[in-house]
Amino acid sequence: xxxxxxxxxxxxxxxxxxxxxxxxxxxxxxxxxxxxxxxxxxxxxxxxxxxxxxxxxxxxxxxxxxxxxxxxxxxxxxxxxxxxxxxxxxxxxxxxxxxxxxxxxxxxxxxxxxxxxxxxxxxxxxxxxxxxxxxxxxxxxxxxxxxxxxxxxxxxxxxxxxxxxxxxxxxxxxxxxxxxxxxxxxxxxxxxxxxxxxxxxxxxxxxxxxxxxxxxxxxxxxxxxxxxxxxxxxxxxxxxxxxxxxxxxxxxxxxxxxxxxxxxxxxxxxxxxxxxxxxxxxxxxxxxxxxxxxx
Amino acid sequence: xxxxxxxxxxxxxxxxxxxxxxxxxxxxxxxxxxxxxxxxxxxxxxxxxxxxxxxxxxxxxxxxxxxxxxxxxxxxxxxxxxxxxxxxxxxxxxxxxxxxxxxxxxxxxxxxxxxxxxxxxxxxxxxxxxxxxxxxxxxxxxxxxxxxxxxxxxxxxxxxxxxxxxxxxxxxxxxxxxxxxxxxxxxxxxxxxxxxxxxxxxxxxxxxxxxxxxxxxxxxxxxxxxxxxxxxxxxxxxxxxxxxxxxxxxxxxxxxxxxxxxxxxxxxxxxxxxxxxxxxxxxxxxxxxxxxxxxxxxxxxxxxxxxxxxxxxxxxxxxxxxxxxxxxxxxxxxxxxxxxxxxxxxxxxxxxxxxxxxxxxxxxxxxxxxxxxxxxxxxxxxxxxxxxxxxxxxxxxxxxxxxxxxxxxxxxxxxxxxxxxxxxxxxxxxxxxxxxxxxxxxxxxxxxxxxxxxxxxxxxxxxxxxxxxxxxxxxxxxxxxxxxxxxxxxxxxxxxxxxxxxxxxxxxxxxxxxxxxxxxxxxxxxxxxxxxxxxxxxxxxxxxxxxxxxxxxxxxxxxxxxxxxxxxxxxxxxxxxxxxxxxxxxxxxxxxxxx
Lengths: 295, 595
Known about the structure:
The complex is a heterodimer. Chain A has helices at residues 29-43, 79-89, 101-107, 109-118, 163-169, 183-195, 217-223, 236-244, 264-267, 288-291; strands at residues 52-55, 70-73, 95-100, 123-128, 131-132, 138-139, 174-179, 200-205, 224-226, 250-257. Chain A is of the alpha/beta class. In chain A, the strands form two sheets. Chain A has an eight-stranded mixed β-sheet, sandwiched between helices. Chain A has a two-stranded antiparallel ribbon with strand order 5-6. Chain B is α/β, with parallel strands linked by helices. Chain B is 40% helix and 19% strand. In chain B, the strands form four sheets. In chain B, strands 9-8-10-11-13-12-19 form a seven-stranded mixed β-sheet, sandwiched between helices. At the A-B interface, strand 2, helix 2, helix 4 and helix 10 of A face strand 7, helix 9, helix 10, strand 9 and helix 11 of B.
């Protein structure tokens, strides 16, 4: 693997560097995801000014200004529709949305459902650390049911949401799972997601050394097993089984991909054959023909 | 009836109301007559009432017609056509003296009181044998509409030949057979009228050919055309009356315009998508009614801090919660002005009719982009669904102003990240540039941030950024036009103040001879926040009486005016029953305030 750290010709890691100091806890999984994101963008040949990175609210969202690029830091739970709107306005710009398990499976779960269903041409990275870290460790819908957490000392009464079963029920076109300690795998998955035709869902199991004492770095390191090159990513049934069954090990890698489904944008009849983007089309439009329809 | 008695003194206008169950063909008859009369050289205003149901709820379509401008409805009509008997109770008193009350309910017996009322007011009541006609012609139910149309059309003094031409125009593409069947219905209508000489056509005024070239369209269609004209390339929404007609029009136009139309999964999605599209650099808008707008408010606040242009429509209806979902009102002005947490600059615009429904759209985007903030456009159900006779729009005057948007490569190269939210920028308006532009990058940061968009929690920075953003509000206020003044410009005796759709009824009412000789100034606000009051205050000093007219309970604009310049009104004409101001109702209320 050849990472251009500082290159005169193509994009480099240096370009994505910012002096803003990181504010995450020691050993936070965000460091790994942050590094992998930059590396994937560089290896995809993208300069910081060529991308839009959209962040939800949470620990990961505090990374919005820790990477030099066009970035956006929005509201809790709402990153997917914002990113989708941006992407539709200018489909030439790669758009990645980042959100946590709290934002994506509670506050903004409707947006995840419709993001997958709509198959927007964008990437969504789930920072899945099994809790609300930034608000000091409350249970999320993905926290194990009886785990005592901040504001639920007896554990939460609700059953844990089976996130992968849920995602597969929505007929996604790209599902990958990886782990915040495996930078090379994250890079490969992110690069593939950036090339994907529609909505790429990446579940990154992220360590939270401060509040998630269960799924630690060591735990994930021992249990995450790549599906390997022999895995058939077109087999949705097998992919779902692998995704859901984590009893013995946790299957990682690109679990499922279907490039035959057109993206939301490709489905838009008014955009068929258009060489321009909505961003390029802002001008005074002659409406005389349509106005006279009312005479 | 006071309204009817004073009619002879009023402007010359004739009105027709068609009522019945939703889905019975009420709109079809109303539309053909409305469009037809416009083409015959009359100014027509169409007004629809209906309930929040699909089929069976009571509905009506009223057209008010004149040779001069008419843009409101009368309480009482010259002709009322009832598709079913449910309207009898409500509508029999809504016929003018000497008017016509038509129905198609066989063997119906009116009550003694109703018959006495008809006799006292010289109202001609007539049963139309619709079912018999259908049987005779072996025509399907749908053609009853043409039969009814032909009768009311001729009672409005119009010729059957012109109606046939309209039929050819409207149904010609469906084939000769269908056109012929419609003609037969029209001829049956002629026969019926010939057999009933007691049904005398209404005395119509002479038409004025200038209306023929005019458009006949709803406020929603006017707004939609204006958005397209303004270079809006994306519209997002979630169905909600009375915002849905705009979504529907733009969606129907999408294959012609190339616009991206998204019916979102909720209003939060709709406003987030529009925000993302605006950040990327296109012109996008979203629209909803009060409840949906409540859901959008957090995102509106977000756009305030990231200094992102955004255009949001708030189509008002009456009441809190679901309220009266298909009726009109102006109770959301304070909502628009005060919505969303934190303090940030915003512009609130009020649409009044089909003219500025079109004209204000480019300006909404211009101000949004020039001041890099939120523009809320307030309209209401009356505008959204009212049908206006409208002079063709001037398509040469709209400007596209994008403010401090940097696109030139040489200029882009000079930018640093810290230019984006530079607190020293003149009037707080710092350069804006778009993702994909080869330039220094920045973070569009929803947390309080420094000049580059990096999170900063320092008190000094918080002050600098708040003052930067709010400086835009001051500059915006200076840039906005003063309110419009109609009538007496210099030294009025009477000052009227209003906003939004009330303007139409006010314009009509002021033509009444009770007011034409008075020195009245009508101050109309289209730019509602920030509120400019200098001109108003100058006129108020001279006026002996001031009257506020609003369709809400609290007199919300009046409160804002008092807050901004201390002016209190002598009279308030307020209405909150879900209905717009009717022409003669307003004449009476104004007369009583001035007596």
